[in-house]
Amino acid sequence: MEKILVSRGKSLANISLTDFEIFSKNCAQMEVIRMRSIQDEIEKPDWNLDVSDEWFDPESPAPWLIAMRSYETVRQQGYRGLGEDAAKVDEQLALLKTEAAKLTSQFN
Description:
With about 110 residues, this protein is mainly alpha-helical. The chain contains 5 helices and no strands.
């Protein structure tokens, strides 16, 4: 564990005994989900992966990936502060839904 901390510029002294105990008690419920980085997903999408089967699985990260990619696309189009102005929420939601539809249409 100390090797991992050092590789991330941290020291074992930065971890309190309480935090270590909480982690130790709860680590049995942890699950590792390995995914590509968001940057890789945005810059080099791989639609050969069959995420369409995962779309309706409530445990799947696929819907979150689509939501994040849609959000990033809309932000790159110049829409900043999505959701901050209550008067524009419906308009911005429509933009996000349009982008999500474009992404999911690539599944077929």
